Amino acid sequence: MPDTALNLHDLATAPFATQVSTLRLLFGFNKAEFANVLGVNEKTIRRWEDPNENFEPHGSHKQLLDALQMIAESLGDLFEPDMIKVWVNRPNPALQGERPNDFVKKPGGILIMAHLLGNLGR
Amino acid sequence: MHVRTGSLYTIKTTKIAGKFYRYMRTKYGDKPMAVVGSMKCGGRYNVAGLFGALYLGFDRETCETEVSQGIAAGVRFKNGVFTAWEYDVELADITIQGNHWTASGISEHLHKRGDIEGLVAPSAQHKGGLCLDVYLDRIRTRSHVTPKTNLGTWP
């Protein structure tokens, strides 16, 4: 389950390792599951989440992490932490009736969610 | 579904005038004419990066349902996360009983025509509700969309 202490408002300015672990926990993924979503291996996630590593993704991985960050910031704007948990696990009519934590695993799912949340009320 | 886009260039327009409403995220609520989100992300009746659209509801209930029943999935919002605006509007329009999935494609042609300032469409979320989608870059001198009153925050 997502950590209720996740600070989504300051995510953009947080260290990269914190950003990655926060985005992973937002959807309640373990490292292997998150690696699968991003199309990397688990070792890469461990490196990204290691505060002693100085590593940043490029290309499609960066695009997906940026989109996840947009999702996180929108959720932090819109909902209290306990309601974010509800949103992540609730079947969503805008996502073909799927739960966000399932839809995020689909090809293009991250970008679609970022698009829909980013546009809400803006 | 086959769409005869050619017919979109001959649809007649009619005038529309009155009060319309928009619910914006409060952090953007001081810029009621901004269409940054629709330009950047696209929308039901506009194509991302091509042109922006100002999405207004015919009534507040339609706006509230639009923001709460789509991607938000009815989950309770933080207090005050949206700011409601009332607009005074006068411009030409058309009405499309559109298919949601082809809507932005239809709208691309209507915008391309150049002489259409916006369109009226059914709300995707509020049964019986209507939305006015305005192409701000197509508004002519005799028309206007004017933010009139900040109605405060919601919920």
Largest sheet of chain A: none
Number of helical segments with 4 or more residues of chain B: 3
Distance between the termini of chain B: 39 Å
Bulk shape of chain B? globular
Proportion of residues in helical segments of chain B = 10-25%
Strands of chain A, count = 0
Strand residues, percent of chain B: 25-35%
Instruction: Spell the H/E element sequence of chain A.
Output: HHHHHHH
Q: Identify the overall geometry of chain A.
A: globular
Strand order of the largest sheet of chain B: 1-3-6
> SSE order of chain B in H/E notation?
EHEHEHEEE
Q: How many domains is the backbone of chain B divided into? A: 1
From the alpha carbons, calculate the radius of gyration of chain B and give it in angstroms: 15 Å
Description of the molecule:
- The complex is a heterodimer of chains A (122) and B (155).
- Chain A is mostly helical.
- Chain A has one domain (11-119).
- Chain A has helices at 16-26, 31-38, 42-49, 59-78, 81-89, 100-103, 109-119.
- Chain A is globular, with a radius of gyration of 13 Å.
- The mean pLDDT of chain A is 89.
- Chain B is built from three helices and six strands, in the order βαβαβαβββ.
- In chain B, the strands form two sheets. Chain B has a three-stranded antiparallel beta sheet with strand order 1-3-6.
- The longest helix of chain B has 11 residues, at 103-113.
- Chain B is globular.
- The A-B interface holds A 77-80, 83, 86-87, 90-95, 113, 115-122 and B 23-25, 27-28, 34, 36-38, 40-43, 48, 67, 69-78, 81-82.
Lay out the secondary structure.
The complex is a heterodimer of chains A (122) and B (155).
Chain A: H1 16-26, H2 31-38, H3 42-49, H4 59-78, H5 81-89, H6 100-103, H7 109-119
Chain B: E1 14-25, H1 36-41, E2 54-57, H2 60-69, E3 82-93, H3 103-113, E4 118-122, E5 130-134, E6 144-154
Antiparallel strand pairs in B: 1-3, 2-5, 3-6, 4-5
